[in-house]
Write a structure and sequence with these properties.
The complex is a heterodimer of chains A (553) and B (72).
Chain A (H helix, E strand, L loop, with lengths): L1 E10 L8 E8 L2 E6 L5 E6 L4 E4 L1 E3 L22 E4 L16 H12 L4 H4 L9 H9 L5 E2 L2 E3 H9 L10 H16 L4 E5 L17 H13 L4 E5 L5 H18 L3 E3 L11 H15 L3 E5 L6 E3 L12 H8 L2 H8 L2 H10 L6 H4 L3 E2 L14 H8 L3 H11 L6 E3 L7 H9 L4 E2 L16 H12 L5 H7 L2 H7 L15 E4 L5 E2 L3 E6 L3 E5 L2 E2 L1 E6 L2 E5 L2 E2 L10
Helix pairs in contact in A: 4-5, 5-6, 6-7, 7-8, 13-14
Chain B lengths: L12 E2 L7 H8 L5 H11 L1 H4 L14 E2 L6
Antiparallel strand pairs in B: 1-2
Helix pairs in contact in B: 1-2
The chains are: A alpha/beta (553), B mainly alpha (72).
Chain lengths: 553, 72
């Protein structure tokens, strides 16, 4: 008697083998048999005409806080993701002393754009160490979690204020090593660090104050533990810097026998040599025996924003950032002060923002006047006889700031270029940033987009190659031995989908965060069912009450 | 032991020692130049630190500091 029998599907088992028709039997949370298997089952899922594949794995997320109130990391799970890696980019929610919580929350807010209520209203802080965080999250998981521990929080625990001021002493480095050992013991799959991130005050995060010797000492611990992962976010905007980081990661990989990964690697049609140069360096380092996996996302860069909250869109306009970071009343005062507005518009240069803002499109679905929805700011500004930057401010003020603008395809948008890169044998498909930048773009549906854009439309990968990339390859890179393949004995993480329709839904704004915070999401398209450790977690367009997710390492 | 693979030439870089400044870095990297000239050169090769960063010139232990201009 099986617990579940999935019948009549095309089995794409994650290894890259050609799809074949058959059944998948599950018992006790594990794959019991695959292929020509029959028998009684407590539950049968008819997969005729559908693909049956291992659950997808997302190696770059920031669901650390969301997991405390939402064990499915919605809507990640409904897109077929059964395992996620939080704790990237040097930040995790443990180990973290109570006294340092507000400092790390500020860093998370800077990165994730979560409202403050997400940290104050949705859960109780009942942990300091990594084991405590694990316990707090594990209570209600429906998705599997393979967490990294953040270098910045390890540094903060050991050094306090000085973590954002100076190099560590040898005693402090030894204390960090011990703390990392405790985190690995409590279930961390590796360490994350960052060379670019800043906190909410614009100050570099603690990991950036570390000498290479400190990172080297921490990687020695990853080596002691059988070769755990080091993840980093490099200066992805400059290829010489990215290559320098690739070389540093290669040294650490070779010295300590560890895998390393960096994310993101973006392609740019403005600088078409950059991504290929980075990939060429990765190839050279792999030839030396180093493991330096670049992560590339599938989706183009789209950014949406309104003046209701700060946005990444204004990152290069410090005055705009300062104005938009203020509380609502002060922000409105600034946006209605003629002198301030004049300076803000002047910051955009002589074209008044035509180049940077002219292509923005009014999204709609909020307080935007219907007559503007779907039109570019350039066109609207001309109609209003205004410069684009001033039109943006005025339209926002006229409508309670509740007007969202979309800056579409800001980079990484050429399917013809990106397809072959995604198919490259050393390219790690990831970097979704799931759960981060939530008020700027939807970080869900990248796997659906892989199939719709790069398998169906462009033919850059076969169905089997695409499935392998986001299942067994990812599991192997991360040492998740139990996951990523539909083979007897493996954990029964399974997704049933229609390869003719799988994709990602339209990006839409929802207000489902604690404190009615806003975020952009995309619904799943073409996914029939998602099973996590043998339990149906999502099917027929609905979440089930499964609590079968685990910490896996 | 890593296989003997010849890496292609890329821009050379160093990382700062604790307490180093642009001036001490410049003296370390370009000892044959005058202090001013060395600092100017180093700054121009590392705009990510000496121009784009706020505050400009704040040196961090993890920084990559290029010790030559971009390769042609």
């Amino acid at each position: 008697m099986f617990d579940v029998l999935i019948t009549g599907g095309r089995i794409v088992d994650g290894t890259g083998a050609t799809a074949r028709h058959g059944n998948v039997a599950i018992r006790g949370g594990r794959i019991a048999a695959v292929g020509d298997v029959t028998g009684e089952a407590a539950r049968t899922i008819d997969a005729a005409g559908k693909v049956v594949a291992p659950g997808f794995i997302d190696p770059h997320t920031h669901f650390d806080v969301q997991l405390l109130w939402d064990g499915a990391a919605r809507p990640a799970l409904e897109h077929g993701l059964t395992t996620i890696v939080p704790g990237n980019c040097s930040l995790s929610l443990a180990p973290l002393k109570a006294a340092d919580r507000s400092r790390v929350v500020g860093m998370f807010q800077q990165i994730e754009e979560m409202p403050p209520e997400a940290f104050t209203e949705a859960f109780e802080w009942c942990w300091e160490d990594f084991a405590g965080y694990r316990e707090a999250v594990a209570r209600h998981l429906s998705i599997n979690v393979a967490p990294l521990v953040g270098h910045s929080v390890i540094r903060l625990w050991v050094m306090g204020e000085a973590a954002q001021q100076r190099a560590a002493t040898s005693d402090e480095i030894a204390a960090m090593q011990d703390l990392l050992r405790a985190c690995l013991d409590a279930g961390a799959v590796g360490l994350s660090t960052s060379f670019v991130d800043i906190d909410e005050n614009g100050r570099p995060v603690p990991s950036r104050f570390a000498q290479f010797a400190e990172l080297d000492a921490l990687c020695a611990v990853l080596g002691e533990w059988g070769g755990r992962m080091l993840q980093c976010v490099p200066e992805f905007y400059a290829v010489d810097l990215t290559i320098a980081r690739i070389d540093q990661l290669a040294e650490l990989s070779l010295r300590h026998g560890i895998p390393t990964t960096f994310s993101p690697l973006f392609d740019s049609t403005q600088a078409p040599d950059n991504a290929p140069r980075a990939i060429a360096r990765v190839e050279e380092q792999f030839a030396r025996g180093a493991r330096v996996w670049p992560q590339m996302q599938t989706r183009p860069i789209d950014i949406s924003f309104s003046l209701l909250r700060p946005s990444l869109f204004f990152a290069r306009l410090p005055r705009w950032v300062r104005v938009l970071r203020q509380p609502l009343e002060a922000r409105l005062a600034s946006l209605t002060d003629p002198e301030t507005v004049e300076r803000m518009v002047a910051d955009l240069g002589p074209d008044g923002g035509e180049r940077m803002m002219g292509g923005l499109v009014v999204r709609g679905g909020d307080a935007a006047p219907q007559a503007y929805v779907g039109r570019t700011l350039s066109e609207i500004a001309r109609e209003r006889s205004q410069l684009p930057a001033r039109a943006l401010i005025d339209i926002s003020l006229e409508n309670g700031l509740d007007v969202a603008f979309l800056s579409a395809a800001q980079g990484h948008e050429s399917t013809e270029r990106i397809g072959p890169m995604l198919a490259h044998p050393l390219m790690h498909i990831g970097a979704s940033d799931g759960g981060a930048h939530i008020a700027s773009f939807a970080t869900y549906g990248d796997t659906g987009y892989l199939f719709s854009e790069f398998v169906r439309k462009a033919g850059a990968l076969t169905l089997e190659q695409a499935v392998r990339k986001i299942t067994s390859e990812t599991a192997d890179i991360w040492g998740l031995k139990d996951r990523g393949r539909l083979q007897p004995g493996k954990a029964a993480d399974v997704v049933v989908f229609d390869d003719r329709t799988i994709g990602r839904g339209e990006e839409r704004a929802v207000f489902d965060l604690p404190g009615e915070g806003m975020r952009y999401v995309r619904d799943a398209v073409g996914i029939d069912a998602v099973l996590v450790n043998g339990e149906v977690a999502w099917a027929g367009g609905r979440y089930a009450d499964a609590r079968s997710g685990v910490f896996c390492n | 032991m890593a296989p003997a693979v010849r890496l292609s030439r890329q821009r050379r870089f160093i990382t700062p020692e604790p307490g180093e400044t642009l001036e001490t870095l410049a003296a370390r990297v370009l000892p044959d130049l005058s202090a001013n000239e060395a600092a100017e050169k180093l700054a121009s090769w590392n705009l990510h630190i000496f121009l784009l960063r706020k505050p400009a010139g704040l040196l961090l232990g993890s920084d990559v500091v290029f010790i030559e201009p971009p390769l042609g």
